[in-house]
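User: Hi! I'm working on a homework problem where we have to compare a predicted structure to a textbook description. Could you give me the structure for the chain below?
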Amino acid sequence: MKMANLKDLKEADAAARAVISLTKLIIGEELSQKIAEVSPPDLRLGWESIRAAQMDDYQRDERLFETGEVDEERGVSNTS
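Assistant: Happy to help. Predicted structure tokens:
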């Protein structure tokens, strides 16, 4: 949380969930399931509780990262 300069655990949780969600999209269902199977029970529950991002989410986030704004037609407002 401190290394990422996040203000509290709520922000840290949201950031961790976003990273895991995108990771699951990239690695696919099969590898995601294997990770869950070898994880300790508490981590497995957390991993399995987070859905994989959808490609639309991934593309939106990539655009946000690259340009700082997202297409308004898709219902996501400009960040500036």
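For your comparison, note the following. The radius of gyration is 15 Å. Confidence is low (pLDDT under 50) at residues 72-80. Good luck with the assignment!
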